[in-house]
Amino acid sequence: MEIKEEQNRFVLLNDDNQEIGEMTWSNAGDKMMIIDHTFVDPTYRGQKLAEKLVFNGVEKARREGKKIIPLCPFAKKEFDTKPEYSDVLRT
């Protein structure tokens, strides 16, 4: 499994280099990311891959000094259950 960053999205690739998931965001100004979509192919669910996609978004926000608005229901659940993400959550 590999996660690559593209324009406003992280792409999850399987070992055959096929896209099996993504997390997308839009930028709201220079200091804000809005996570609007997280998806993992049903065949690959249950492996914490969506969690890894959101984690990549959190790490990107930390590197770039941004805050995140988790509009996507999955990302919102991640932020609600992981207090360690509070440093990048826009309150």
Can you say what the CATH homologous superfamily is?
Gcn5-related N-acetyltransferase (GNAT)
Shape: globular
Lateral arrangement of strands in the main beta sheet: 1-2-3-4-5
Give the class from helix and strand content and strand pairing.
Answer: alpha+beta
**What percent of the residues sit in helical stretches (DSSP H or I)?**
25-40%
According to CATH, what is the class?
Answer: Alpha Beta
Number of domains: 1
CATH fold name: Aminopeptidase
Rounded to an integer, what's the Rg over CA atoms?
Answer: 13 Å
What does this structure look like?
Pfam families: Acetyltransf_CG. This is GNAT family N-acetyltransferase. By secondary structure, the chain is of the alpha+beta class. The chain has one domain: Gcn5-related N-acetyltransferase (GNAT) (Aminopeptidase). The chain contains two helices and five strands, in the order ββββαβα. It has helices spanning about 50-65, 75-80; strands at about 1-5, 10-15, 20-25, 30-40, 65-70. It has a five-stranded mixed beta sheet with strand order 1-2-3-4-5. α1 (about 50-65) links the parallel β4 (about 30-40) and β5 (about 65-70). The longest helix is centred in the middle third of the chain and has 16 residues, at about 50-65. The model has no long low-confidence stretch (mean pLDDT about 95).
How is this fold's topology laid out?
Layout: E1 2-6, E2 9-13, E3 19-27, E4 32-40, H1 49-64, E5 67-70, H2 73-81
Parallel strand pairs: 4-5
Antiparallel strand pairs: 1-2, 2-3, 3-4
